[in-house]
Amino acid sequence: MPRKEIDLPYRVDHLSILDEEGKLDSSIEPLIPDEVLLKIHRTMILARRFDERMLILQRQGRIGTFAPIKGQEAQIGAAAVLEPDDWLVPSFREMPAELWRGKKMESILLLYGGYNEGGYVPEAVNNLPVAIPVGSQTLHAAGLAYAIKYRKQRQIAMTFFGDGATSEGDFHEAMNFSAVFQVPVVFVIQNNHWAISVPRSRQTHSKTLAQKALAYDMPGLQVDGNDVLAVYAGAKEAAERARAGGGPSLIECVTYRMSMHTTADDPKKYRTEEEVEAWIKRDPITRFQKYLTAKGLLTDDTIAAVDAEVQSEIKAAEERWAQQVEKALDPLDMFAHAFAEMPPHLLAQKEELRQELAGRKKAE
Amino acid sequence: MPRKEIDLPYRVDHLSILDEEGKLDSSIEPLIPDEVLLKIHRTMILARRFDERMLILQRQGRIGTFAPIKGQEAQIGAAAVLEPDDWLVPSFREMPAELWRGKKMESILLLYGGYNEGGYVPEAVNNLPVAIPVGSQTLHAAGLAYAIKYRKQRQIAMTFFGDGATSEGDFHEAMNFSAVFQVPVVFVIQNNHWAISVPRSRQTHSKTLAQKALAYDMPGLQVDGNDVLAVYAGAKEAAERARAGGGPSLIECVTYRMSMHTTADDPKKYRTEEEVEAWIKRDPITRFQKYLTAKGLLTDDTIAAVDAEVQSEIKAAEERWAQQVEKALDPLDMFAHAFAEMPPHLLAQKEELRQELAGRKKAE
Amino acid sequence: MAKMTMVQALNLALHQEMEKDDRVIVLGEDVGLDGGVFRVTDGLIHKFGAERVIDTPLAESGIAGFSIGMALYGLRPVCEMQFSGFDYFAMHQMESHAARLRWRSQGRFSVPMVLRAPCGGGVRALEHHSESREAYWAHTPGLKMVIPSSPRNARSLLISAIRDPDPVVFYEPKAVYRAFREEVPEDEETLPIGTSQIVREGKDITLISYGATLHPTIEAASELKEKHGIEAEVIDLLTISPLDDELFTASARKTGRVVVVHEAPRSFGPGAEVVARLVEKAFLYLEAPIRRVTGFDIVIPLFQREQEYLPGVYRIVQAVRETLNF
Amino acid sequence: MAKMTMVQALNLALHQEMEKDDRVIVLGEDVGLDGGVFRVTDGLIHKFGAERVIDTPLAESGIAGFSIGMALYGLRPVCEMQFSGFDYFAMHQMESHAARLRWRSQGRFSVPMVLRAPCGGGVRALEHHSESREAYWAHTPGLKMVIPSSPRNARSLLISAIRDPDPVVFYEPKAVYRAFREEVPEDEETLPIGTSQIVREGKDITLISYGATLHPTIEAASELKEKHGIEAEVIDLLTISPLDDELFTASARKTGRVVVVHEAPRSFGPGAEVVARLVEKAFLYLEAPIRRVTGFDIVIPLFQREQEYLPGVYRIVQAVRETLNF
Ligand SMILES: Cc1ncc(C[n+]2csc(CCOP(=O)(O)OP(=O)(O)O)c2C)c(N)n1
Ligand SMILES: Cc1ncc(C[n+]2csc(CCOP(=O)(O)OP(=O)(O)O)c2C)c(N)n1
Ligand SMILES: [Mg+2]
Ligand SMILES: [Mg+2]
Description:
The complex is a heterotetramer, with 2 copies of chain A and 2 copies of chain C.
Chain A: E1 3-5, E2 13-15, H1 34-59, H2 76-79, E3 87-89, H3 95-100, H4 105-112, H5 137-150, E4 157-162, H6 169-181, E5 185-191, E6 194-195, E7 198-199, H7 200-203, E8 220-224, H8 228-243, E9 249-254, H9 273-280, H10 284-294, H11 300-327, H12 344-363
Parallel strand pairs in A: 2-8, 3-4, 4-5, 5-9, 8-9
Antiparallel strand pairs in A: 6-7
Chain C: E1 2-4, H1 6-20, E2 24-28, H2 44-48, E3 53-55, H3 60-73, E4 76-80, H4 91-98, H5 101-104, E5 114-119, H6 134-138, E6 144-146, H7 151-163, E7 168-173, H8 174-177, E8 182-184, E9 197-200, E10 205-209, H9 214-228, E11 232-236, E12 239-241, H10 245-255, E13 258-265, H11 270-282, E14 291-295, H12 306-309, H13 313-324
Parallel strand pairs in C: 2-3, 2-4, 4-5, 5-7, 6-7, 10-11, 10-13, 13-14
Antiparallel strand pairs in C: 1-8, 6-12, 9-11
Helix pairs in contact in C: 1-7, 3-4, 9-13, 10-11
Bound molecules: thiamine diphosphate (TPP) (2 copies) and magnesium ion (MG) (2 copies).
One thiamine diphosphate sits between chains A (93, 132-134, 161-165, 190, 192, 194-196, 257, 261) and D (29, 58, 60, 82, 86, 89).
């Protein structure tokens, strides 16, 4: 009895299914219907192309600062295990997952183009808006999951956040609440190796982020985050456990931010080209395409066709965006949605602004 | 490679040296000089008696709310590994450790008696004042330890906090910062099984609190917190590691809050008498006395003598307290120590109060 | 009708709202078996079970963020911060999410939560247990900030806060919790958030206060009448934000003289906003400077001296007389 | 003397203080190799090493609490919150410890730290990157709150803040960071915290502002003079708390009319305190209501509309003319 090791209920595994060369470990290949595989592929391409397009728009000054997602498209594997009425609780780098979940590109452009209206979430979609304060949204996922459990629904909540976010107290509190109340939530870390200029190794001293689950007796799994099959399989396992009443899980997706932190950032200040190049070899799209090609689901031609299609989708979205911007011209709308009902002082302030704008117009 | 367990650098042990009956595992008995053993014993008795006395004073209305420490006196084992110039960073239930570190009883009475002056910390003592916001002080210990490392000193910082405190984001951030910067700090959890009315089992889902160290690749150890030898041994190991540049450690002391949370609390609302009684059998003082008696260091007579001595020490402290209260009569002192130099608006407000007090006196 | 303390009245409000609406969930530290450290949630767990009356882990940001998640799902969480002196731990969740999610989602989501916290001094408590920082919340766009002053209005306002479609920070003055009893009708009663009340009519001067300091303010008004023949009108703000400036402006236009009373620190405190509104809306009617009778701009002292810190009858009476003699 | 932007001037202050005093430590998110997202800490890590220029984990309460620990040991940490919109995460550490430890320990300990944060709108940023919540800090006993308006005073005030024996919250208006250059003497220069300045003399009206909105205020003063022959005196507060009410009171006594300008939301904002002080100290001299030209009481809109939210020259000129026509 004097000094003895304590048995802990969990160990931490690493999961990889499709390696960098696109080689498959078929013994653990998840069973995904062909049309879903193709839809995942298509959304990954869409996300990649839309990201590239946003970068151009940003450089042209047509939208403001945003956080590119290049390299992190395999996150769609996690979103793909969600049912339509499940809840997605993203940070600011989940554009791929959001597209999978039906977010409109024009609304993303509206948001990063600087219009409040871009935050609108359609009634049918259970996605929370982008959350910028790092780590803070994880608690909302925990609370949503509690409400789901309270209402005895089959839904789950899935929240995404970065390696940096694991340092925030809110992440700790969200993990702890979720484990204590055994609620149906899946925590998905996008470990893209950097929090702006701070490398994963300086963010925390632990060997993995997945092992942080041990602090809460929660299952934790590390997956190759550029392997969409591994991401899918890990998320599926966690989602099924959650739906079956087995409580929360943590998944660390080891991936890489191939681009800058945001368009305001210059990664050359803090990381080497070699590192980036090494990761480009591990591109999630390339290896998934190899897999799908080997499976006979894609050819070079159909890949090119997908590319062309998403490009025209993006173009169409830009047109809808332009129309929405036209409609969004009234600055007085800044007062909208402050409260369900506007209190007198805001009515008065809105009137002040109306008069000011009218006066300025006249003065011109 | 596909799915494989990740090797983690640490395991979590439980350490117990002196069991409930006072039976010793002599293979791991720490080497503590007799006079230190006796001083630890004496301070445990002093803490127990002073706590009892404070409860009486509180019930008499002579002091206000405070948090009794009964049952947690073995924490002195941890404080006993500190050098005089090390830093003690307590919560509000470390009166025993504070007495060990030279805190004056009269100053404790002054504090809980409602005088700001009770917060004074003598120049020679590196104890931070009581910290009430749960968990928040752990970050101060981490920062102190960083400063120690920066100044290349041999000191360490030791911070105490409860089981409930491990739920706060600040605990997580303090653990993470400490591990990242590998600073000389020892985190000591007083797991007294309750955070007011919330039992340890509902505070967090993990089997132990010690395992939370795994989230940071930090050594974590659980010790029998009513076994002052185990507490000492665990803390010694951690302190030596810290001093040798080995970074932070976490120690979970499994103990019990035998009394109420604070004097404003009624534990009967949420816990059973049986539970309390079971823990009274594990009293840290009883078993330590058995050990010291078996060692030939104490007899029933010398135990009684210690008791009488501490009682008269307490009485003397109360007299000094009364004198200090006499001196502390000026309410204008509430403005003292707001800033190094009092800004004009505070000078003016102090003058307002002076005039008010003078006016009220005249009006009487 | 029964005579109740504020604690009992708040407890009644929670009982009735939970009974009526299964979206209402109570959560916080020790709100379950313990019934809250002040017993405001007493008995709820026995009636509604541990699923709806949740003892949470010890983490304020967690409690607030978890509540936000529940509210987004359509529940109506009423969370308790054990003392208002610990709600800064939850500030970022409230400022950055509770207050913004309706706006951020452009109306799709809302956060109908209540954050309750005992506030203020006067109960001989430890450090951090006597603070008044309502100005933080009042200054935060997207939040409402309510502080009742009596059992009856506490009950009515808490019901309104629970039913409010937007987040409400609800401070409960500890000094009033058990200070007196008041008739509280059994039948449900609400009070509109954003509306203040005249609690005593007068023509010579307007006294504006809320929460615990309303009571010395009323006492001061009595003393002013009895000893000096001064008729003070007393206004209870009840809601700090959105601030009802109509009523006190009208009163100030009538009396021409105003004293604002609160225990929060003076500088950048709630009283400053009252003064600013009066200057904006009743400038020509003001016959004397508006005095702020408040806590000082220091940490509220430990309990032996807190009565000297807190605005009391003497301080209010003096300020009124000086204002009238101006 | 070199012409510098505010970013360069702040960087100079840090370089010089770190060189002079090895107690000065810089820490925060991305303050090392990246030099801070606005480059205020650029180059420091190369000169002073990673031990003194610390890239911390991503945790604001951690950064503040860690700094408090260092300060207790006698160091002089200068920590950066990446944006002021994230400093609420650190609010409890600042309110409950930084602001109180001198008092709590009755003078034994002190917390000579600086908490720097870029504040305010006008740089077309994302949500949470344009806030002005200086009133939270200004209302907190035990803290000082400083907001410079130009490269030169930013440099002098930052040096004073670092040397200050007590905690200083130091907000840096992003809109000014690179807006213009100013001569900044190479030799060390300090400005006393708690002191405001007249930046333009005038006799007709007093305009009080600080930080970014000082500049449209000055522009408005020029326009008022040129177009309307109105001579406005402009005061730059520089320190929000402790508020220097002597200078603006004297000015108000002279002009009789005052407009306060800031971009923080109006209600319970800094302007209210200025009004309250003027009412207390210059009542008889006021010839018109004091107008507050401020941000509105809503979340600052995303960038397409932020210029309509922020107080600009037009809004200030209108308010001045209305005040003069009162
Ligand atoms: C609470 C908070 N602090 C600071 C920031 C500024 N910031 C934005 S993103 C970021 C790094 C985030 O890193 P990580 O969590 O790894 O996500 P990633 O950006 O890599 O996707 C920082 C510091 C913020 N948005 N929120
Ligand atoms: C941040 C914060 N939240 C709430 C409280 C109120 N409170 C005081 S002690 C306590 C329980 C603490 O439990 P634990 O950490 O286990 O320490 P113990 O009291 O058992 O020594 C609570 C909730 C507080 N002091 N600080
Ligand atoms: Mg990252
Ligand atoms: Mg405990």
